[in-house]
Write a structure and sequence with these properties.
Radius of gyration: 19 Å
Number of strands: 9
Structural class: alpha/beta
CATH class of the largest domain: Alpha Beta
Shape: globular
Order of helices and strands: EEEEEHEHEHHHHHHEHEH
Number of helices: 10
């Protein structure tokens, strides 16, 4: 349980744990034409006349899954989910062309207009939190609430921690596997070394790098150990799209104007009701970024889950997120 007082906006965790809502299936799905060659897959589920929200998956380069729907009460929310450009069921797979943060924000707006809603709640974890914050900073008038997990501000410091020096000291065994495809003389800049291989003309070179890149994240995602690694991280097709798109975004600093741009936008977000959930032992996106975001958004509700890492499926994180989405229903639109 958190030792911090709820009067500061930091709420206690642990008591009265919630679980996921029941399985629910989409009542609509399909593809929308996006920029360039991209077609974006989307699905809508829950209540047709429910409170609208959009759910943003992680990565970048991840994909939606059925569990994401279950953080919301399907009788009261109308959920839109989509596979971001180049991944999941969006087409073409693993395409980097016309694939930037700003392209994804334009896709969210396309889907909002297609849904016929003026404003919606935005839910995202890890890279999904990055994209949610960037979307809200760009279109604050379109966001009724933010529910965020595993805050990732996409700064050089965060990238250095996870892909150069930091998390490597906690997971030296997994790090050794991550280093394996890269010659010693290239290890001083691993993002560049991986980018070179993930954009190589030879699919075998791409696949070797993609599998190592994806396994590194899968091995560090949960405090429950490698057995909790999502099975998708073992699938070559997923790994290639995931690794190529992640490395593309990270090597380009998220396509932001400057390092630290996202946190600088916090004044634009202060009128948006916000919930922040952060695992205390998150190694992928350590708590420092969530702490800074909370300081920049003093009215946000901030819950530290003491028995959780990065994964959204840690029991304490599930409970905190379900309580947050329930609370977001009370926000006036």
């Amino acid at each position: 349980m958190s030792s911090l007082d709820s009067s500061s906006g930091v709420v206690p965790s642990g008591a009265g744990r919630r679980t996921l809502y029941p399985e629910n299936e989409p009542f609509e799905s399909g593809w929308v034409q996006a920029g360039g060659r991209h077609e974006v897959y989307y699905e809508t589920c829950g209540a047709r006349d429910g409170r609208p929200c959009v759910i943003l998956h992680g990565g970048p380069g991840g994909a939606i899954n059925a569990t994401m729907r279950r953080f919301f009460d399907p009788a009261r929310w109308r959920m839109t989910l989509f596979d971001q450009r180049g991944c999941g069921r969006s087409r073409p797979n693993a395409l980097l062309e016309d694939n930037t943060t700003w392209d994804l924000i334009a896709d969210i707006e396309r889907l909002r207009e297609r849904a016929g809603v003026e404003k919606w709640a935005v839910f995202g974890g890890s890279w999904g939190s990055t994209l949610a914050l960037a979307y809200a900073a760009t279109h604050p008038e379109r966001v009724s609430a933010l529910v965020l997990r595993g805050i990732f501000l996409l700064t050089r410091r965060e990238l250095h921690w996870f892909y150069q020096d930091g998390a490597s000291m906690i997971f030296p065994d997994a790090w050794e596997r991550f280093l394996a495809p890269i010659p010693v003389e290239e290890r001083g800049d691993l993002l560049t070394a991986y980018h070179r291989r993930l954009t190589h003309d030879d699919p075998a070179v791409q696949a070797e790098a993609a599998n190592a890149w994806s396994r590194w994240e899968g091995d560090t995602i949960s405090i429950r150990g490698p057995e909790a690694r999502p099975s998708k991280f073992n699938e070559s097709a997923f790994a290639v799209a995931f690794a190529r798109i992640e490395c593309h975004f990270f090597r380009n600093g998220g396509f932001f104007a400057h390092d630290g741009w996202l946190l600088d936008q916090a004044p634009r977000l202060r009128q948006i009701p916000t919930w922040i959930v952060q695992g205390r032992f998150d190694v992928v996106t350590p708590m420092d970024s969530a702490w800074k975001l909370k300081a920049a958004l003093p009215d946000a509700r901030f819950e530290i889950v003491w028995d959780a890492g990065h994964a959204s499926t840690e029991p304490g994180t599930i409970s905190a997120l379900v309580r947050a989405t329930d609370a977001a229903l009370t926000v006036s639109v």
